[in-house]
Design a protein that fits this description.
With about 260 residues, the protein is of the alpha+beta class. α8 crosses α9. The strands form 2 sheets. The chain has a 5-stranded antiparallel sheet with strand order 2-1-5-4-3, sandwiched between helices. It is built from 9 helices and 10 strands.
Length: about 260
């Protein structure tokens, strides 16, 4: 499902950066007022066609090195565009022009994302014209959106983690672990994981793991085996019933022996 999500994002980003008016607006710093109004209107329509309304929970914006910007929704940006262009999500995009990169950040840079850890999806474009100018397209994904991809798996006996290649926990049902700069292998297992995906047993836990190469992330599902058994068989209830049956049988035996 997460890989399908990446494919959908790739299509949306390609439509934005491959349109005509959006790159033109960010490439040309000298547009007269009438032309700018017309291009802005057409650019907004292209953005709406490329980024459907179902994505509006994820703020989408474009920032360029010539000082121009544009947002898909009415969200307000809380950081200066100069500072945004210096952030890791921007620097990584510039290191990989034309590619989509995913970067965990402790907080977003819009009004509705500044209070939580987010994953910023970014793509640099426009830097193929040789004029040194560039623009970066961003989509900011909230934790609440990431939760939807794994909430069906988590419970009192199961945990889920999305971890980047540096070992930082990007998202998890255990919110206190998000952003921790430790590898899950050290935190949970003290062991490495063989292959790109699989299942291993360690210290009473079953660990399901898989790589997400598009994201440069790894995902882990951690099942507490004892809790799972307790849930499945309700060991306490079985113990009580077994005790009562044993007591009843003992009473019957004593009664029969007494007779």
């Amino acid at each position: 499902e997460l890989n399908n999500r990446h494919e959908n994002v790739a299509v949306m980003f390609d439509q934005v950066t491959g349109s005509w008016h959006i790159p033109y607006y960010f490439r040309d710093p000298e547009i007269d007022d009438i032309s700018e109004f017309s291009i802005n209107y057409k650019m907004q329509k292209e953005m709406e066609a490329s980024i459907p309304d179902t994505e509006t929970m994820n703020p989408v914006l474009i920032v360029s090195s010539n000082g121009k910007s544009h947002t898909r929704t009415e969200t307000s940006v809380t950081e200066s565009f100069e500072d945004i262009l210096k952030m890791p999500c921007s620097l990584r995009a510039l290191e990989n022009p034309g590619s989509i990169v995913y970067t965990y950040m402790e907080k977003g840079f819009t009004a509705d994302t500044k209070g939580e850890g987010v994953v910023v999806i970014s793509k640099a474009f426009n830097n193929t014209y040789g004029d040194g100018e560039y623009a970066i397209l961003y989509m900011i994904v909230k934790q609440s959106v990431l939760d939807d991809y794994y909430s069906y798996f988590t419970s009192e006996m199961t945990d889920f983690y999305i971890v980047d290649l540096q070992g930082q926990i990007v998202s998890s049902n255990r919110k206190e672990t998000i952003g921790k700069d430790v590898t899950l292998a050290e935190k949970v297992l003290g062991n490495s994981f063989p292959g790109d995906e699989g299942r291993i047993q360690k210290d009473g836990k079953t660990i399901l793991y898989a790589s997400l190469p598009y994201y440069e992330y790894q995902i882990y599902g951690v099942i507490d085996n004892q809790k799972a058994l307790d849930e499945l068989y309700d060991v306490r209830q079985i113990f009580i019933i077994s005790f009562l049956i044993s007591a009843l049988m003992s009473a019957v035996i004593v009664f029969l022996v007494g007779r």
